[in-house]
Design goal:
It contains 12 helices and 4 strands; from the N terminus they run ααββααααααααααββ. By secondary structure, the chain is mostly helical. The chain folds into 2 domains: 45 residues, no CATH class; 218 residues, MetI-like fold (Orthogonal Bundle), CATH 1.10.3720. The strands form 2 sheets. The chain has a two-stranded antiparallel sheet. Helix 2 runs antiparallel to helix 12, helix 5 crosses helix 7 and helix 8 packs across helix 9. The longest helix is centred in the N-terminal third of the chain and has 34 residues.
Length: 266
């Protein structure tokens, strides 16, 4: 009983820590006027809601979702190959490969992007969604390869050998044996890379050139214009996926899964 109540308390604190900072955004998104020293807004407005339903914002939301989902899928696919090599095999230059994979995270993203922007312009990838997807793989693939490499290091390859012995081909073994065994790490990697891409601003601005409009670009534009209602409404849209993910994690931690997303129940 004590462990159960302790778990519920921990989940409650986790949810509260996530939701409490969002409450001012909810109030500001509906506040028409809110002057000091008023405790509550003097007038409410629907402008924040109307802004969220505006065609430009809806289009930017769809673009952000498309880019984030694509980046997460590609990062996981690349991370599976790189992670297997790092986690299962010992070879000369392994440390160098690990360092090269982490280099885009260690080096400031702005410096890297400015260096490769010329190549994106030369090959027609600048100002395109494809170019933004490719450039966002730089900060996401290192995390994917590291997480999946750790998962592969704990993988019992005897299961794969047994499947191959029973006549399963490489692809079928991968889909029916390897992927289910790596599912917690894959889910964690997909969510992490999705969130990194979803909130990316600098890389999208430099490679997208203002032609690829995502939610973070609209949010920073609203913050720069000192429009608090618009900034709060757009901020709610930007933080919505992370909040939903944390609530989902909290719910699963209260469920029966012993290790979901790599997190074990206490």
């Amino acid at each position: 009983m004590n462990g159960r109540w302790g778990g519920r308390l921990g989940v409650g604190l986790l949810v509260a820590a996530v939701l409490l900072p969002v409450l001012p955004l909810v109030v500001w998104s509906a506040a028409g006027t809110w002057r000091y020293p008023d405790v509550v807004p003097g007038r409410l407005t629907r402008r924040g809601l109307d802004l969220v339903l505006d065609g430009e914002v809806v289009s930017a939301t769809a673009t952000s979702l498309l880019i984030a989902v694509t980046v997460a899928a590609l990062a996981c696919a690349i991370g599976l190959s790189a992670g297997r090599a790092i986690g299962l095999y010992r070879f000369r230059g392994r440390r160098l490969v690990q360092f090269l994979l982490l280099a885009p995270v260690i080096v400031p993203g702005l410096a890297v992007t400015l260096g490769i922007q010329v190549f994106f312009v030369r090959y027609g990838l600048a100002d395109t969604v494809l170019g933004v997807v490719l450039v966002q793989l730089m900060p996401t693939v290192p995390y994917a390869a590291t997480l999946l490499g750790a998962a592969y290091a704990n993988l019992d390859v005897d299961y794969e050998r047994q499947a191959r012995t029973l006549g399963s081909g490489p692809l079928r073994t991968f889909l029916t044996v390897t992927v289910p065994l790596l599912r917690p790490a894959l889910v964690t990697t997909a969510l992490l890379t999705f969130l990194i891409s979803w909130s990316e601003y600098i890389l999208t601005l430099l490679i997208g050139g203002g032609q690829v409009t995502t939610l973070p670009l609209l949010l920073f534009a609203a913050i720069g214009s000192a429009d608090r209602t618009a900034a709060a409404a757009l901020g709610l849209l930007v933080v919505l996926p992370p909040v939903l993910i944390v609530l989902l994690v909290a719910r699963r931690l209260r469920g029966r899964d012993d290790a979901w997303m790599g997190l074990a129940r206490g």
